[in-house]
């Protein structure tokens, strides 16, 4: 019997606007119909705002690449993330975004160097030490572990600082609250629910959680910013940001600008990778035959030696597993854009200010382009030419494509290889993830996996 990895069962009947509202407040993935996966374009009308989902490769390419300037990132996403990210490249548009991206690119050039790989390796050793201390007979919530280790890697590579368990718990908790409250507040805004009906508690936990994250980062950045004579003392991403000079103004980034970009890199850089790692571990635990092939590949590439950048490049099957996991569970499940002028799509007239959503979750599971789309099958990626154009984009597409994709792939492969080499993974029998698609695709009830030490591993 075929085993399918979990995904929320599509709903059967056309739901009322209120049902959709309440389902969406929880997560949009729970309010999809079977047809949502195959439609070319969907329309979702709520009072005073038109929302369209484009789900056809050429339309997606139009929104993300050829006509990108007519479909900027949606202003509500910017507003929603502002308490943490300020004015950072994840949500800005136009000239501001262009300048920020140019200034950030050099920082990402430096992530390719081996120094960053060494820092990732140190964090992975600490992860293995934490796993070693667990009771081997119990299930581990890998979502928590992956969130911590990816946050730790971002701390080490951006700020040259190890994340302490206490600081990690504080920031992760704050971000959980921020994700939940910001999703609810955005739904209230989309449905134009007047402010007097917004709960004060909701608004204050949203702002407070944002402040906690920002303040923790500000406390680390401030002394480095003030110590301007010592800019070469570190080899991290913050040091490249501190040195960048804007050619137009001949000025460096201000403290607030640096804080905005660091906060954005911290969140964009760990939440997504944690989601990708968690879902990949779940899939490996669910499919022992693929897990064993990955293990053999790792042993063949590196034995029991310390991993090198070259070893990681040799893990071609594990790379296919990660790609397939990013297909089934894209960490960013939807990209919201807005129309800057009226336009036409598939004979539909879209007003200026309409919301246009591109969703890798839907396109990656569309049976027009993927055979048996809800099934886990890493061999789909054996022949890259067999993948239809513009149907696979876990890192986005066009000029707004993820700046950290190479960083993320290296980190994901290294952490997976380190864990699989030491442990066999088993998923908890009967466990069903409570999957939600908010800022990232996560399981609200965690994800329980048993780590069983492999024989012969000291
Ligand atoms: C598996 C891990 C990751 C996934 C799946 C992912 C996915 C994405 C996606 C889909 C976008 C585009 C969103 C849109 O068009 O609306 C994006 C943008 C971005 N990502 Fe990632 N990301 C990952 C890891 C990272 C890491 C590790 C970093 C940094 C350390 C990072 C930094 C960014 C930044 C700065 C942007 C905004 C780029 C721009 O708009 O110019 N991401 N990411």
TrEMBL record:
Alphabetized Pfam families for the sequence: p450
UniProt source species: uncultured Sulfurovum sp
Query: What is the designated name of this protein?
Result: Cytochrome P450 family protein
Family, as annotated: Belongs to the cytochrome P450 family.
Question: Gene3D superfamilies in the record, alphabetically?
Answer: Cytochrome P450
Residues bound to heme are: 402
The record's annotation in InterPro entries points to: Cyt_P450, Cyt_P450_CS, Cyt_P450_E_grp-I, Cyt_P450_sf, Cytochrome_P450_Monoox
- Cofactor annotation: heme
UniProt KW Flavoprotein keyword: no
Enumerate the GO terms in the molecular function aspect: heme binding; iron ion binding; monooxygenase activity; oxidoreductase activity, acting on paired donors, with incorporation or reduction of molecular oxygen
Q: Which UniProt keywords are listed?
A: Heme, Iron, Metal-binding, Monooxygenase, Oxidoreductase
The reply on keyword Transport is: no
């Amino acid at each position: 019997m075929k085993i399918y990895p979990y995904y929320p069962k599509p709903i059967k009947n056309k739901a009322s606007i209120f049902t959709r509202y309440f389902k969406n407040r929880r997560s949009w993935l729970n309010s999809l119909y079977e047809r949502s996966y195959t439609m070319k374009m969907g329309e979702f009308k709520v009072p005073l705002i038109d929302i369209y989902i484009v789900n056809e490769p050429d339309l997606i390419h139009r929104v993300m690449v050829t006509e990108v300037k007519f479909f900027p990132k949606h202003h509500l996403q910017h507003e929603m993330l502002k308490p943490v990210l300020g004015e950072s490249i994840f949500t800005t548009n136009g000239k501001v975004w262009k300048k920020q991206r140019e200034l950030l690119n050099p920082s990402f050039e430096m992530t390719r160097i081996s120094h960053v790989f060494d820092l990732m390796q140190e964090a992975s050793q600490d992860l293995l030490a934490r796993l070693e201390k667990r009771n081997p007979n119990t299930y581990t919530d890998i979502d928590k572990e992956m969130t911590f280790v990816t946050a730790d890697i971002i701390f080490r590579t951006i700020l040259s600082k190890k994340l302490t368990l206490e600081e990690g718990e504080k920031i992760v908790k704050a971000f959980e609250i921020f994700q939940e409250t910001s999703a609810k507040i955005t739904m209230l805004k989309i449905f134009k629910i007047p402010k007097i009906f917004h709960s004060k508690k909701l608004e204050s936990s949203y702002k407070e959680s944002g402040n906690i994250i920002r303040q923790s980062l500000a406390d680390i950045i401030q002394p480095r910013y003030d110590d301007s004579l010592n800019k070469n003392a570190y080899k991290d991403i913050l040091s490249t940001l501190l040195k960048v000079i804007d050619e137009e103004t001949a000025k460096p980034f201000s403290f607030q600008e640096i804080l905005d970009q660091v906060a954005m890199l911290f969140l964009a850089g760990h939440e997504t990778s944690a989601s990708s790692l968690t879902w990949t571990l779940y899939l490996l635990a669910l499919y022992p035959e693929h897990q064993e092939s990955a293990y053999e590949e790792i042993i063949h590439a590196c034995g029991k030696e310390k991993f090198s950048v070259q070893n990681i490049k040799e893990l071609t099957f594990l790379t296919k597993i990660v790609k397939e996991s990013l297909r089934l569970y894209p960490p960013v499940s939807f990209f919201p854009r807005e129309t800057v002028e009226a336009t036409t799509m598939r004979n539909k007239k879209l007003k200026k200010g309409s919301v246009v959503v591109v969703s890798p979750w839907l396109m990656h599971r569309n049976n027009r382009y993927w055979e048996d789309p809800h099934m886990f099958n890493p061999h789909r990626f054996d022949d890259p030419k067999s993948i239809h154009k513009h149907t696979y984009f876990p890192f986005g597409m066009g000029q707004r494509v993820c700046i950290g994709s190479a960083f993320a792939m290296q980190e994901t492969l290294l952490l997976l290889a380190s864990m699989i080499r030491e442990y066999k993974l088993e998923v908890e029998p009967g466990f069903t993830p409570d999957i939600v698609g908010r800022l990232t695709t996560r399981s609200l009830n965690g994800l329980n996996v048993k780590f069983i030490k492999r024989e012969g591993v000291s």
